[in-house]
Design a protein that fits this description.
The complex is a heterodimer of chains A (171) and B (310). Chain A has ten helices and two strands. Chain A is mostly helical. The chains are: A mainly alpha (171), B alpha/beta (310).
Chain lengths: 171, 310
């Protein structure tokens, strides 16, 4: 379903729109006058058809449900050009992040790598496990062989608090 | 100058060349590095899952930095730098958010530091160390090298929260490159994103972004690409071969961290700079430098060769 279909077939939902606006804190979408500066410079527009101005418009009109189940919100490259260039300070980047958060809360399907990253962080504190690097001469190096100090992983309390925060968001 | 350092996941777990070269170069320029008591994710990737969790994680990093008693925090990763800077910006303007975060930190006896300046390698070198000192430390001029800079999107945007350089016309990395004698080329794709974050959801698009930029630079005939972010470096160096498969053609552009380039110019042993870890043909740059040095020793012959090159 394209974004255009969404406006013709779906019904606006003010309640769910309110949730996004709350998440955005001080960012005002009402000032967006669809100048398209965001989409003109969007890194993901050419390759993945992300049109940030449409995302902002749909949220403004209350068509949020279709967006949070759509893959489109996961195509943002987070280059922050839209945030920088928006003359109305509507920051599509932050709108997209709020939509992603809501997608998680509502149990929508999200890219697996993100879920993996979360469980990895809850396990070790870091995004990924340490890797061995193989050089062009096929020699393998790890931190120890390179003379780098051992990683000081976070305490258990950090993970406990983080888990509490994440679960609180889902509750 | 003494600074606390927060490395971030990518540097600690795979981008070792950055950590090695930063640890090697900065102390020689009078910057002492103090590691934090603990290292954990800054919250960057969690922002898509739960923005408040990110705020807590980044605030905890600042609290750990505050524990060192230092008021300067170096964050060499551009993504971490943005996450931590944005969190600081929010916590200083939103009392309610600050109270919530303070309560969580208190559970571990941590405290959000009242004063902390967040540095990236680029502004630390450009603004604090200064171009003059860097120029004085150059033992091996990189004259003759034509390089391109990639500063990284999250290093420079959004300017409203205070970033390292201009959001549309970044010049600091270029000036740092030129301080070593090399030339830093202005090119149309300079602000194009490396695509790193899309590796999570759309790897092919991510590799297209990185590959297109490298292809464009190769066509311009530059000797190398200089970056200063582990995510960008992963795309341009580690993933260059995969990117070539996606965009077609042969890609073999040397990609170096700025701190590696600086180390070369300062005459530091290349192994101490982690150059053997780069996956791109960085030896091409070294060969070009050695070649020139030999020519310089050759006297008369050098002049004719130089003339021919011009």
């Amino acid at each position: 379903m394209s974004l255009v279909d969404l406006t013709s077939m779906a019904k606006p939902n003010k309640e769910i729109r309110g949730k996004i606006l709350t998440k955005l804190g001080g960012i005002e979408l009402i000032n967006c006058f669809q100048c398209l500066k965001c989409t003109s410079g969007c890194t993901a527009f050419k390759l993945l058809e992300l049109a940030p101005h449409e995302v902002v418009k749909l949220v403004k009109l209350g068509f949020v449900e279709g967006l949070i189940t759509s893959e489109i919100i996961w195509t943002c490259a987070t280059c922050l050009k839209c945030t920088e260039r928006c003359p109305q300070k509507a920051s599509p980047y932050h709108v997209i992040m709020a939509l992603r958060n809501l997608a998680v809360e509502q149990g929508a399907k999200i890219p697996e790598a993100y879920l993996k990253a979360v469980s990895q962080i809850l396990e070790t504190g870091l995004l990924q496990t340490t890797r061995k690097v193989t050089t062009k001469e096929m020699e393998t190096f790890d931190r120890k062989r390179l003379g780098l100090p051992e990683i000081k992983y976070p305490t258990k309390t950090f993970k406990t608090v983080l888990l509490k925060v994440l679960e609180g968001a889902l509750a | 100058m003494k600074v606390a350092v927060f490395w971030g996941c990518r540097i600690l777990t795979s981008q070792y060349a950055y950590e090695i070269s930063v640890r090697q170069v900065l102390p020689q320029l009078g910057v002492e590095l103090v590691d934090l008591r603990e290292m954990h994710c800054c919250g960057d990737i969690i922002k898509s899952i739960n923005t408040f969790a990110t705020t807590y994680m980044a605030a905890r990093i600042m609290a750990l930095a505050g524990e060192t008693g230092l008021t300067d925090l170096l964050v060499p990763c551009s993504r971490c730098h943005f996450t931590i800077s944005e969190t600081r910006y929010l916590l200083e303007r939103n009392e309610k958010l600050r109270e919530k975060v303070d309560a969580l930190l208190e559970e571990e006896g941590l405290e959000y530091p009242p004063e902390i300046k967040i540095w990236h390698v680029i502004d630390l070198l450009h603004d604090a160390v200064g171009l003059n000192l860097i120029k004085r430390k150059v033992k091996r001029s990189l004259e003759s090298l034509k390089l391109a800079s990639h500063i990284g999107c999250q290093t420079i945007r959004p300017s409203a929260i205070g970033r390292v350089d201009s959001p549309e016309m970044p010049q600091k990395l270029d000036k740092l490159i030129e301080a070593l004698g090399a030339r830093s080329l202005e090119y149309p794709e300079k602000l194009d994103c490396c695509g790193a974050i899309l590796m999570f959801s759309h790897p092919e698009a991510a590799l297209t972004l990185a590959g297109s930029k490298i292809k464009a630079l190769q066509e311009l005939g530059v000797d190398g690409l200089i970056d200063s972010c582990p995510a960008c470096h992963m795309m341009f160096d580690e993933n260059q071969e995969s990117a070539a498969r996606v965009v077609g053609g042969r890609l073999s552009l040397p990609v170096l961290y700025y701190t590696q380039l600086l180390g070369i110019a300062m005459g530091i042993d290349i192994e101490k700079l982690g150059l053997h870890l780069n996956q791109t043909p960085v030896e091409k740059i070294l060969e070009k430098l050695t070649q020139l040095k030999e020519e310089a020793h050759d006297g008369t012959e050098t002049r004719s060769k130089k003339e021919r090159r011009v």
